Structures are given as C-alpha cells and as structure tokens.
Amino acid sequence: MSDRLRAFVRESNRIEGIKRAPTEKEIAAHRAFLALDRLTVQDVSRFVREIAAAPLRCRPGMDVRVGHHAPPRGGPHITDQLAALLVSVSARTIDSFAAHIQYETLHPYMDGNGRSGRAIWLWLEGGLAPIGFLHRFYNQTLDASQRK
Fold this sequence. Notes:
There is one protein chain. By secondary structure, the protein is mainly alpha-helical. It has one domain: Orthogonal Bundle (Fic-like fold), CATH 1.10.3290. It has seven helices and no strands.
C-alpha cells in the first residue's frame, strides 16, 4: 500500500497545485487517518492540522470563498454539520461520491478541504484507489456538484 498511498498523496497534492513530492509527514498523516475505525471531527481536524495547519471554521467570521462557490458562513453550525456528515461516513450509510460533495460544499476548514475531502473519500473506498483515477474522479465530483 505504501507506493499506492504515496501516489495518492502526490496526486491529491497536485490537484491543489503542490508540485513537490509528498513529505513523510503527509504520508504518515494519511496512513494514520486510513487506519481509523471511524471518523470524528477531532480526527479530521487533526489530519487537517498535519497537512495544512488550518483551523475548523467554527467561529463567526471564519468565512471562505472557493471560486464561484460560497460555502456556509463560519460558526458553530459548521462543526455540527461536519459531525453529522462524519456519522454517516463512519456508518457507511453514504457513498464516497455523495460524502465528497457534501464535505466540499460545507468546506469546513480554512484550508486543506480538498486534500482532507479526498482522504475521506479514500477512507470510504477502503484505502484503495487506482492510480490516476483520483484526478478524474475529483473533477467529475466538482462538475456534478455544480449541476445541482
């Protein structure tokens, strides 16, 4: 899995315009994340701190804009909505595609949402993704969310 995980992290970073090789810290963060039995806000927040050093948008005024998308304004409801999504993710009552759309639409962190959203997608996929598939899937997911 190590080579596949490294390739996943490389591709996930590349989507964000990060062209360097994945760091050992990023690989270790992904490995620890994928080993979790369930996902909580604390787990995802820890992961985001390790890969992007970004906080959860849990206070008013912690607002972001992503291209033409304006995620919900920051505040405690972000934490609540993320927690509810992660309950569905952990129970596997939501598929990876729908989870990814909901996560990216919520955009719960100030930074690192793309990479953490893809890590959640990979977690739901059992930690396995065909090399080269991620970039195509990511673009399809964003395109589908724009049509809704």
